[in-house]
Design a protein that fits this description.
- The complex is a heterodimer.
- Helices cover 38% and strands 18% of the residues of chain A.
- Chain A has four helices and five strands.
- Chain A has a five-stranded parallel beta sheet, with helices on both faces.
- In chain A, strand 3, helix 3 (85-100) and strand 4 form a beta-alpha-beta unit.
- In chain A, helix 1 (30-44) runs parallel beside helix 4 and helix 2 runs parallel beside helix 3.
- The longest helix of chain A is centred in the middle third of the chain and has 16 residues, at 85-100.
- Chain A is globular, with a radius of gyration of 14 Å.
- By secondary structure, chain B is of the alpha/beta class.
- Chain B has a five-stranded parallel beta sheet, with helices on both faces.
- Chain B starts with a strand and ends in a 5-residue tail after the last helix.
- The chains are: A alpha/beta, B alpha/beta.
- The A-B interface holds A 23-24, 26, 106, 112, 114-115, 117, 120-121, 123-136, 138-139, 141-142, 145-146, 149 and B 20-21, 97, 102-103, 105-107, 114, 117-118, 120-128, 130-131, 134-135, 137-138, 141-142, 145-146, 149-150.
Chain lengths: 154, 150
């Protein structure tokens, strides 16, 4: 059975990176991020599905339906409202499910969210969820590299 | 590029310390892997570890003095307590990366606060011991296309 299907999901706000003021976003577009991810996945022999949705509920229900169709996951929750504990709980339950299937999942952020002070990372089961942030679009590349290694070691 | 990889307290116990969290790799095998990745890309890595907070501050000050290009710092438990390390990193103008083998944000709540990340450019956590090598392998691309924008 194949063990190389990677789902990359991008949350609200990431459709227009010019909304962000961080230097990490300078001139960066989601299309450029997608292209970079596609190149990285191709070099590792990973099959990539790259999605973005401004509707958090739609994004998450799609992800839940697709947990069984992918072997690894990258999640950039982006605009996940910092005030929404409901969204955070839904993310956590999805990540718990992915973790229980022993599939790698990495949270990716274009910027260093800890510089902002009020931005919290996602939650998940201990030892199951990775985090990469602050490398611009290379945050995704780093996560893809890690996922490739983890899938190969399985 | 010249790179400092700075490791904090208890990292010298890797391999025997709670392997279910930190894995089976030892500090020596991580150091070897860092050197391997670095020499492939033509970088020079100095790999260091101390259990003492002040020593970690001095490593960062050495990086300032020697104009080192990149710091990768795993401050371990001092991450959550050390304003001194935060201040030293603030004074360092090169590219600085906070790294953790596990992901502290999904562990005990006393590990949720980090004084290192707000002073760093980027954060890597929970990718295991492989995280070090992955980061070093990416530095050439980062230098060409990303670091100068920071």
């Amino acid at each position: 059975m194949s063990n190389n299907r990677l789902l990359i999901i991008n949350g609200p706000g990431l459709s227009d990176l010019s909304n962000y003021n961080e230097t990490a976003h300078d001139g960066l577009t989601l299309a450029a991020v997608q292209k970079k991810c596609a190149q990285a996945c191709e070099s590792y022999g990973l099959e990539m599905d790259f999605r973005q949705n401004d509707d958090e509920a739609e994004l998450l229900s799609g992800l839940i339906e697709d947990i069984n169709n992918f072997d690894a996951f990258i999640i950039n929750p982006a605009g996940r409202s910092q005030t929404s504990s409901v969204d955070l709980e839904i993310y956590s339950s999805v990540i718990n499910e992915i973790g229980s299937q022993d599939k790698p999942v990495v949270e990716v952020r274009i910027e260093n969210i800890f510089k902002e002070g009020n931005n919290k990372p996602l939650h998940g089961p201990e030892g199951r969820l990775g985090f990469v942030g602050g490398f611009g679009m290379y945050s995704y590349v780093l996560a893809i590299q890690s996922i490739d290694k983890k899938l190969r070691n399985k | 590029m010249n790179i400092y990889v700075i490791n904090g307290p208890n990292i010298n116990l890797l391999g025997t310390r709670e392997p279910e969290i930190y894995g089976n790799e030892t500090l020596e095998t991580i150091a070897e892997n860092c050197q391997k990745q670095a020499s492939k890309a033509g970088h020079v890595v100095q790999f260091m570890q101390s259990n003492y907070e002040g020593k970690l501050v001095e490593y960062i000050q050495d990086a300032i003095k020697n104009a080192i290009d990149v710091i990768i710092i795993n401050a371990a438990a001092y991450t959550h307590t050390s304003i001194a390390i935060h201040d030293a990193l603030k004074s360092y103008s090169g590219f600085k990366i906070e790294l953790h083998i596990s992901n502290p944000h999904i562990r005990e709540s006393f590990r949720h606060e980090t004084f290192v990340a707000p002073a760093a450019d980027a954060v890597v956590a929970g990718l295991g011991a492989d995280g070090y090598g992955h980061v070093i392998g990416l530095l050439t691309d980062l230098q060409k296309h990303y670091m100068q924008k920071k």
